[in-house]
Amino acid sequence: MEQPLDVPELSATGGFTLRPWRLTDLPLVREASDDAYIPLITTVPSACTEPEGVAFVERQWARAATGAGYPFVVVNPDGRPVGQVGLWLKNLDQGRASLGYWVVESARGQGTAAAAVRAVACWALRDLRIPRLELWVEPWNTASLRTAERCGFRREGLLRQWQRVGKERRDMVMYALLDGES
C-alpha cells in the first residue's frame, strides 16, 4: 500500500478555499448528480441516494488513503461547497500528475474553477515539486478550455477518442503546465 496522503486546506483567489471531503458535503454530491454531464465524466452517481452519496465521499477518502491523489472540495466565500478539484498521481513515477475539476451549475460563471485549479496547480508544482501537470477537456467544453488557459495550461493537442464518456469514446484536448510556467 502507498502512504496515505494528507489533503491540506488551501486558499484560492476570490475568497475560495479548498479542503478535504466531509460527510456534510452530501448536498454538493446530490446537486452534482443532477447535472447532465458531471456523472458522465466523473464517479459522481447519476441518481444520488444517501448511501450512494456516502459511498462517493468515502471513495474520495480512499483515494487519499491509498496515495492515488488529493481530492479537494471547493468552497465559495460564503462557506458553501460548490465543486471538486482532484490532483491524481497515477503517473507520478513518470514526473507527471493530472487534474480534474467540476463545479455545480449554481456556482458556474463566477471564476470558481479557475481559482481552484490555479491554487491546486501552484501547490502541486511548488510544494509537491511535480514537474508536469496535465488535464484533458472535451473540445466543445469552452468554459473548461478557458479555465485551463486562464490557469496557465498550454494546449498540446487533440487526443482522438481518448476517453470513455458515458457509452462512447470521445476526443479530448490535452493541456499541460510545467514547473516554472505558473
CATH topology of the domain at 10-130: Aminopeptidase
Query: What integer is the average pLDDT?
Result: 92
User: Which H/E pattern describes the elements?
Assistant: EEHHHEEEHEHEE
Shape: globular
Quick one: biggest sheet? 8 strands, mixed
Strand coverage percent:
25-35%
Oligomer: single chain
Name of the CATH first level of the domain at 10-130 = Alpha Beta
Individual helix count: 5
Low-confidence stretches: none
| CA-based gyration radius | 15 Å
CATH architectural group of the domain at 10-130: 3-Layer(aba) Sandwich
> Residue share in helices?
25-40%
Strand order of the largest sheet: 1-2-3-4-5-6-8-7
Say how many strands there are: 8
Distance between the termini: 32 Å
What is the CATH homology-level superfamily of the domain at 10-130? Gcn5-related N-acetyltransferase (GNAT)
Label the structural class. alpha+beta
Labels describing this entry:
single chain, 182 residues, alpha+beta, Aminopeptidase, 8-stranded mixed sheet, 5 helices
Task: Describe this structure in a few short sentences.
The protein is an alpha+beta fold and 182 residues long.
Task: Outline the structure in words.
This is GNAT family N-acetyltransferase. The chain has a domain at 10-130: Aminopeptidase (3-Layer(aba) Sandwich), CATH 3.40.630.30. The protein has helices spanning 26-33, 38-41, 50-65, 112-126, 142-150, and strands spanning 10-11, 17-19, 69-75, 81-88, 96-103, 132-137, 154-165, 168-178. It has an eight-stranded mixed sheet with strand order 1-2-3-4-5-6-8-7, sandwiched between helices. The protein is built from five helices and eight strands, in the order ββαααβββαβαββ. The N and C termini lie far apart (32 Å).
